[in-house]
């Protein structure tokens, strides 16, 4: 198998991870977390979202966080925006990249944003137009691309259609997500091959969850099929909104260590990344499920270990 | 990729898992654990070891456990034996399959059993001869086949040599182990392809640890290269002896769910397997790190989840 020499990690912990944590986290801890992730060498960090604080109270301080993080030149700091009101707030906070989201499953979209997939895309048209007109970048998320908590299986054709709709909207990068972590490597191959037949995979990211333990196996399948951008969350921060107590986002540490071990560069300094996660854990008391975090912690606390 | 229609799970929790747990576990809990694993449909369960209780006090009650477990016809219940004294005890306890162990790394073997790889094999000759003469089966373990906590990298050629030595000893199955969980899928391909060029892979098992989160990715690589027997531990019971606090054996639940999802039958009933792990956890208070166990527990405690 030939693998790429380099891959990009798109860090979602401060937004996607924190959104799925019930415990309150201080603005200070969030800012320190993002800054530590920048120090670790991440080149894309989704900082927060500008959704209604009624819907996502965990990220109600998004504008403060954006104002206070120390942005490093060349690093992307996108934010999630659900509508024009969110876009206004994001622009006011100086965001230079916006992310919009829909789902491949009609049932999921209906329950999540009370709209059909097509209607949810229509809602984003003014957001997309204004973002692009301002010379800013737009990222699109397709959730439930590998399975839906409500309808179960999601046909590959539905994923291709939604990715096309987001590409038509002007998204420079489209993240295809396994929201409930049910994907398996054979399925990832099928979906990525179908996407690769129609789109340049340089603009497609894979967003996997480790709910059923298969996240890294799915990353490998994606990598072998041409994916070079992977979403992940530092420490595995997050959890599964559809199965409280289960694991959510794949841990950035686990993806980075896998890629490095396979000879794929990421630009991320694993030890500094671990420092970022451990500092966040210490500041918030939120336990992080990353296997690599546990292994490095064990190695640090005992000499001569693997 | 063509995958096999069926794979065998070789359950190591009651032996390898418990051996790496510092907490005392009652004989009752061990017997109930093995019986529940039998009920879950596992076809090979390594029950205990007959090593010196000074070295492995956790398994000092091996004879009692063997006497009390309810063996199901057609199911293998091997035990680990380090020498003739252990073999005597294993035979007295009615064991019908013995497992012996060595390492691919000279440094590891030296530290683990104070012998070179070749000398450790020589020590097993009388054990092997008597086991085979009694018409019983012999399994061989090769640890540190993908990396060593002392010497680091382990050449593929060294793995091939040790597997050959164990095959010459009469082992019907040889388990190639990633003792410290450092393997990556590309490395698994290299090692398995080297073994497949020389041995019938129907007699080779892959024993992976999830220390660095890559266990399932490595199982997939092994499966794609022709491995059909996988060692795993119910719930992920165990831990890494070289990095206390880190994850050890891959969880049987995680392997079984992966295989089933990919269309590979195992004969294991996942729900009953989860019952076995949850009962063990409840009886002993030892938390089990399996992702699938967490996901099924979450699903059971909340309707309508993934």
Number of helices of chain A: 12
The separation of the N and C termini of chain A measures: 27 Å
Question: Quick one: which chains have the greatest interface?
Answer: A-B, 48 and 49 residues
Q: How are the strands of the biggest sheet of chain A laid out side by side?
A: 1-8-7-6-5-4-3-2
What is the number of E strands of chain A? 8
**What is the chain-wise order of helices and strands of chain A?**
EHHEHEHEHHEHEHEHEHHH
**CATH fold description of chain A:** TIM Barrel
Globular, elongated, flat, extended or rod-shaped: what is the shape of chain A? globular
Oligomer: homodimer
Please tell me how large the radius of gyration of chain A is. 18 Å
**Unreliable parts of chain A:** none
Topology:
Two copies of one chain form a homodimer.
Chain A: E1 8-11, H1 13-19, H2 27-39, E2 48-49, H3 62-68, E3 79-80, H4 84-92, E4 97-103, H5 106-113, H6 117-133, E5 137-143, H7 156-169, E6 173-177, H8 185-196, E7 204-207, H9 215-224, E8 229-232, H10 252-261, H11 270-284, H12 291-300
Parallel strand pairs in A: 1-8, 2-3, 3-4, 4-5, 5-6, 6-7, 7-8
Helix pairs in contact in A: 2-3, 2-11, 6-7, 7-8, 8-9
């Amino acid at each position: 198998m030939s693998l790429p020499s380099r891959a990009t990690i798109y860090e979602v912990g401060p937004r996607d991870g924190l959104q799925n944590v019930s415990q309150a986290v201080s603005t200070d801890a969030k800012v320190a977390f993002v800054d530590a992730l920048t120090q670790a060498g991440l080149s894309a960090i989704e900082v927060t979202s500008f959704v209604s604080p009624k819907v996502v109270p965990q990220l109600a301080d998004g504008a403060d966080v954006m104002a206070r993080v120390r942005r490093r030149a060349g690093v992307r700091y996108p934010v999630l925006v659900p509508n024009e009101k969110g876009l206004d707030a994001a622009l006011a906070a100086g965001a230079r990249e916006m992310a919009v989201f829909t789902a491949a499953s009609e049932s999921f979209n209906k329950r999540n944003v009370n709209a059909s997939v097509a209607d949810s895309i229509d809602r984003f048209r003014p957001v997309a137009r204004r973002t692009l007109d301002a010379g800013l970048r737009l990222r699109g998320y397709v959730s439930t691309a590998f399975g839906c908590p409500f309808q179960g299986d999601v046909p590959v054709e539905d994923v291709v259609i939604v990715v096309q709709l987001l590409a038509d909207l002007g998204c420079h990068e489209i993240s295809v997500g396994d929201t409930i972590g049910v994907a398996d490597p054979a399925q990832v191959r099928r979906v990525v091959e179908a996407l690769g037949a129609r789109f340049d995979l340089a603009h497609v990211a894979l967003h996997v969850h480790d709910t059923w333990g298969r996240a890294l196996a799915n990353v490998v399948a994606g990598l072998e099929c041409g994916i070079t951008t992977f979403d992940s969350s530092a420490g595995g921060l997050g959890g599964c909104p559809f199965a409280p107590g289960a694991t959510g986002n794949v841990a950035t540490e686990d993806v980075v260590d896998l890629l490095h071990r396979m000879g794929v560069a990421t630009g991320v300094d694993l030890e500094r990344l671990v420092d970022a996660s451990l500092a966040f854990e210490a500041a918030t008391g939120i336990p992080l499920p990353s296997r690599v975090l546990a292994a490095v912690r064990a190695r640090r606390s005992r000499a001569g270990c693997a």
